[in-house]
Amino acid sequence: MNTLFIDGRWVAPKQGKTFNSIDPAVEEINQIIGAAGKEDVDLAVAAARRALDQDWGQSNGCERAVYLDALADHIDAHRDALAMVEVCDNGKPLPEAQWDVADAAGCFRYYAQLARELDERQDAPLVLPDARFTCRIRHEPVGVAGQIIPWNYPLLMAAWKVAPALAAGATCVLKPSEVTSLSALQLGMAATRVGLPPGVLNIIPGFGHEAGRALSQHSGVDKLAFTGSVPTGAKIMSSAAADIKNISLELGGKSAFIVFDDADIEAAVEWIMFGIFWNQGQVCSATSRLLVQEGIAPRLLERLVEAARAIKIGPGLEPGVQLGPLVSNEQYQKVMSMIIQGSQEAELITGGIRPKHQPRGYFVEPTIFDEPDVSSRIWMEEIFGPVLCVKRFKTEEQALALANHSRYGLAGAVMSSDARRATRVANGLRAGIVWVNCSQPTFTEAPWGGMKQSGIGRELGRWGLDNYLEVKQVTEYVGQEPWGWYLK
Length: 488
Ligand code: NAD
Hints:
Layout: E1 4-6, E2 9-11, E3 18-23, E4 28-34, H1 38-58, H2 61-77, H3 79-90, H4 94-121, E5 124-125, E6 133-141, E7 144-148, H5 154-168, E8 171-175, H6 182-193, E9 201-203, H7 208-217, E10 223-227, H8 230-242, E11 246-250, E12 256-259, H9 265-277, E13 289-293, H10 297-309, H11 329-345, E14 347-350, E15 367-370, H12 377-380, E16 387-393, H13 396-404, E17 408-409, E18 411-415, H14 419-428, E19 433-436, E20 451-452, E21 455-456, H15 461-466, E22 469-477
Parallel strand pairs: 7-8, 7-10, 8-9, 10-11, 12-13, 12-18, 13-16, 15-16, 18-19
Antiparallel strand pairs: 1-2, 3-4, 5-6, 6-22, 11-21, 14-15, 17-20
The chain binds nicotinamide-adenine-dinucleotide.
């Protein structure tokens, strides 16, 4: 089981433990994967430290950009194969997987450019109010980065973490989710192909409570970057507290989509569906709470139900499929139990069951609940499946209050043909990402992350690079006179 990528080599886990990659459309094993344990984490962190102390930590941005561009080219060149891997491991429809792979390549290419620009701003002078001093600002790599990612966008989440870290000159120990490790292994192969120096990127598939915990508690890790659920994020944060590790957390959400009476119904239906059924609703920023103004509600809901029922459900490789299976049996059971509970809390207006034509695989029909109570679990908690909850509102103030009444603050969306109202509402939403007249479009250039319990820090854009940089001021006394405080 040589599936751990440590110090540029493929090795088996020391304890010999394994887990299965399962195809969620057919519930069959794709591959058996070695599971990293504590000793393997130690080896990976040591390799990352050596690489940092050797050439990589001293390299400049232009040198690192060459590797980042090569990784982007490699991903582009293997786009179809990588997308197939993602479909078989995660279940998403092929066009969505192709989109993810293209985005992952784009992410490496974007951070290659930022790495080059980093050289230009290295040692930039800072003008101080006292001319007897000069100051230059340096950006130095944060060190060894421990990176833990979820299963919903396996390759893309790896790219969001690895690309900025490498651009900054940090070294990485990446732990993919035990539910979807296959594309991360492909990334390890890409690293070999492009000649990335050994130890710069280490990939250790394994369980969260073993490899993940060992990595987050490791004293040799300088930075922990985590994407996943709030409960795991809390554990990561307390691990980081022990030795004050630098952390960034991208956690869950229960985002609201506010639709006003003056919205175009067809456009609203399109974006509402994109906001909750894309990737089977397994999207941190999914706009899973729909707030509809009373006037438009009856017609909008009628069209929404009609359109949700028309979605083509099936295995991700089948042509035309728009909704694949959920990622795992565990996720299927979680979503179904929330649906069962939700049926007692609100009116189930469509879905809520396994589609009749899919007797196996973890499929759930697009599901819509009408008017759950604001304190109900389906309204308050992240379901992470194709489940939309709808409530009506009368006024703008009421809509904003309902939207912001959440422990989460990842994303939000508003749709209205009144531009001033849309701007007011967008500004009033307590969320790190707000979409106006759309939901979900994501750009590598723009900051990504949440407020409240949705996380700490931002990924993507220049903010993503900053996650992996330490900022240093070097201040020099250049005055002609002695300082003269003690020695007059
Ligand atoms: P999860 O928290 O169960 O697992 C995420 C990762 O953490 C996995 O690699 C897992 O192995 C690891 N892990 C589990 N226990 C651990 C521990 N004790 N110590 C260290 N690592 C541990 O989340 P998931 O089910 O894989 O993903 C779904 C969640 O991720 C949702 O809540 C979703 O909103 C969130 N998410 C957030 C973003 C974002 O950008 N904000 C993006 C994608 C997913």
